[in-house]
Model the fold of this input.
Amino acid sequence: MKKIQISPSILSADFSQLGNEIKRLEDAGADMIHVDVMDGHFVPNLTIGPPVIKALKKQSSMIFDVHLMISPVHKYIEAYSDAGADIITIHPEATEDLNSSILKIKEFNKKVGVSLNPETKVDVIKEYLDKIDLILIMSVNPGFGGQKFMPEVLVKIKELKEIQKNKDLNFDIEIDGGINFDNSKEAIKAGANILVSGTTIFKSNNGDIKKNIELLKSK
Done:
């Protein structure tokens, strides 16, 4: 079994102190930084773009796990690669040619992530699984933080674990959306090895980030 990793979402951080917040996460034992990029078009919210990521990356040696909720995504892959993304995660619905976008991410020597919204079936990515490094299962509808976890998506994680075993594949399974100390255990049991969490990490236990990261990792 893969080591459980925590990818805190900076969507819940203090945006006026992002550099310091990332340093706090690093000191507290976070494994990577989850950056939610939203365009107000593919999802009904706006967040940050390449210049902010580039500035933050200069201050940190952590892995930047960049989730692109933008459409059309293909033409922006290079910009986010240049900005310092280490993992670039895209949605099948946001590109005209998923295979072409996967190959473009690989061209820049970045890890390829593909995200499945709650209603998106695993079948959409089955033929590409040997090219994908990470599958991000959304346990809320993307666009806003603080939503309620949808347990029905855990079936998809179990399905992916079965495929992984049968085909001897080695992708990571990440889950994002409403993750807290209770459902994190369900997600790990189902087979997720990377947990994205924002509100729980930054707000629980009076903002004790280190304690919250350790609690999320515990099975």
